[in-house]
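Protocol step 4 of 6: structure prediction from sequence.
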Amino acid sequence: MNFPAFALPSASSINPARAIARIRNSKLRREVGTLTLPILVETLLVMTLGAVDTFMLSRHSDISVAAVGLANQVLSFCFLIFEVINLGTSVLCSQYLGARLRERMETVVGVSLVANLIFGLTISIALMLWAGPILSAMGLEGEALSEGTGYMRIVGAGAFVQALAMTLSAVLRSNDKPVYPMMVILIVNILNIAGNYAFIFGEFGAPKLGVNGAAISTVTARIIAMSVLFLIVFRTTIRRFPLHIFRRFPTQEFRNLMKIGLPSAGEALSYSCSQLVIAYFITRLGIEALAARTYCVNIIMYCYLFCISIAHAGAIVIGHLVGAGRWEGAYVLGKWLLKVAVGCTLSFSFITALGGTAIMGALTDNPQIIALGTAILWIDVALEVGRPVNILFVNTLQASGDVNYPFYVGLIFMWSIAVVGAYICGVAAGFGILGMWWMFTLDENIRGIVFLRRWNSKRWQHRGFAMN
């Protein structure tokens, strides 16, 4: 990949505004744009896959939406465990391919598949056995507990399928074949929508199964996706898998996977854990608050969809710049990406808030949920000042080699402000879910300031993996 020789002078003589203006017209900007589009499409499809169950069940009942929303919170946390292996897989495969060490790359793929299969089977068994107690401990009861338990048992049973599919997708991306995972996710979305329509509402001669129908449709679509991804990998990437590598388990490659994956996934794991605790607090506020939160989370994620995409694309380009030792170019590119990410996310959030009443009214006819959801969407406009800063700099700092800093910042502020603050303001002080959302806003914006200061300090420079 050729980067422009946008010959930046010494750090002391750089004019940030002028450098950012040069980026707008440089090959770097075009490179980010080229990467952003396929990542945007894939991210959109992944988000849609997760939101389809919620939106289609809204025509079934608000109780079902609340139950499935909480169950998916637990499932999302479990799936993040697989990302520890997948993040390491992506990095090691890319490095070994660049060094033309193909056999070691194939060894990493084998170790990753075996590791995530073991993790996946363990989690599948745990979710099938303890779905009820887990959701009961989270505060669900009555009809909501029954529906959530059934959903989580069925989807949880297929956790190992998702683990393998995620690993195969990581392998294809690291081998410069990102279009295949994107197309598979598109197929999965279509199958899941059709399956939901059939099994939730009893169409096309299928039984009317409600929440369990949504779960069956989701698992079936994921099994098909995993099968197709296996076929693609063994047709395009590893035509003949070297089984001899397992005569003695390659423990060194497994250690390398964990060494890279644990700190990289640590920030996301901390966030997911904090969201589980917050979901427990919201459950105590009642089914209306939980349903409003589920609806809003699935609506709001589309507001920062572009931010996620440009952050991933920017991280790739910054990673290449860091690998080439072009630290000032990486710094200035990060500042330009920040302006684009914040501007777009804020605009989308404001437009969503303007249409909040209509959007919520299309999903539910419960006036209390509509009122709560509309108010949350307006509060979220302030939250979206800080969130894009965090999303961007978590990705770019990790790409530059500063993998531990985002984890520590998330661990400290997410738990001390978002979690503790949500309990004090929302539960103890009685301000409910709206009070909690203001604490989430405070957390996101404070972390945004901390990450911006880190980027401006340039302490992340000279930490690249290629220099070790």
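Step 5 (inspection) to follow. The CA atoms of residues 356 and 374 lie 5 Å apart.
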